[in-house]
Amino acid sequence: MSHGTYSGEIAAQPPKIDFAPIADFALREGGIFVVDAAIIAQRDADPSCKMPASMLETPYENGPVRIELEGEDVPKEAMHAVRKNFRKAGELLMPEGNVALYFHERFTTGDILHTSRLQSEAAAYKMPTKDGIGDIAATSEMPSFHSDDPSRKVYDKRLFTADELTASWDFSIEHPEAVLSVITYKTIMLDYFANLRHVYETRANANLKLFDNYARQWETDNFTGVFVPALTVLYEEARSRDVEAGEPVIDQAMFSQALGFVIGNRGFQNWVTVPAEIALDGTERTNQFVCPAVGPISDHLGDGAILARIHGIISQRAARGDEVVGGMLEHIRQDAQHARDQQPPQEYLERHEREKYCDAIVDGQQLTLRMDWDELNICRGSQIEGDLIVPITFDDTLTDVVRRTLAMISQTGRPAYFAFNEQGYRFTPERLRVIARTQHPNTFVGA
Fold first, then answer.
1. Annotated domain spans of the chain
2. Dihedral angle, C-alpha 404, 377, 82, 288, nearest 10 °
3. HSE-up (13 A, CA, CB side) for residue 158
4. Over the stretch 87-124, which tens digit does the pLDDT of each residue have?
5. Is the pTM above the cut of 0.85?
6. Taking the CA atoms of the chain, what radius of gyration do you get in angstroms?
7. What distances in angstroms separate CA 265 from CA 119, 237, 261, 327, one per listed residue?
8. Are the CB atoms for 55 and 88 separated by under 8 Å?
9. Distance of alpha carbon 33 from alpha carbon 54, whole angstroms
10. Closest Cα partner for 307 from 228, 246, 219?
11. Half-sphere exposure of 6 (CA within 13 A, CB side)
């Protein structure tokens, strides 16, 4: 799919996207929200069935978490069905040419850098710190700054070495425009889905929860987390190849190569071993989970033109002294500077560590559980009918809500749901039991 129109002059008045026909075609002709009653009946009869009953449903939610932490199988047929459905959903919701036309429209109106959504996304952007790099760096003997090395092909999304991740701090300090370009792409795509959602809010048969879960793929930091280090690797390679040529140019070709580097080395895949004792057929195997958004992202950004156009607009605005753009770029620089050079005060570290611990009653045991990112990821999910809804006040922190949630589950024994910063969390007694048994194994010996 070509987006070459972005590299030159664009029309003063491009065609304006009408989202209603796109949304309605997906709804009425594509059957995007149609529920398969036979699959529902099959799942009711067999709890191990994880087949999706509609195009946007993921019954097993986070597949790797379901297998590795909850000890449940995700059959390959269910995984492939979800992947096939999401591919079809992408074709329906983002028909060829329409996303390109929407970017074309947004470039022309000139408002892409002055939206509250972008400023919020830019302000929330965080780079991995020194302490966090160990959790995401490659564990194999992978050579740094050799993008074509065969050992690059990974199976666990750990695509970059610690040296490359730390180099991305300097890259972000020197070239925050490249980082903001990636964030801007995410933001415009969220605006695209917001327009579709606005249509579905007026359609009786639309399932907004499933639609939101699909659109949320563009909301996570996963894409930025791999794209910025990929640009860093390519930039440093270009710099080392020709020292006398000066600083490399961040252009359309480099953006295209960065995406090709990530996709080609399985940066959007997660291969998970299903042990024999978990597998429904009793045979160990490997499930190859793929990020559902990788197809559309490849279509949108494969030739690098969209990101190059965004990068050019950001650079021009910054050169003209645009205060909004300058503020976002300065935040990116400062965040990278902090990750590279500064350590938070000891008092902050101690308080932050204390805030990770929450009290809960699990299987009649009063326990203190560490609720850090790994534990919270286990509890990500969508609301199910019958769940308790956790109340949230304006000044609540995530820890406040988690503690309130654990108290509700301890008192009632029922699942509880809340959404915080547009991310859904579904805490259940079963998920708390998994966390408790991991952190307090001696408490549950023989249980």
1. 4-341, 350-444
2. -160
3. 16
4. 999 999 999 788 988 998 888 876 789 888 898 889 88
5. no
6. 23
7. 32, 17, 6, 34
8. yes
9. 6
10. 228
11. 28
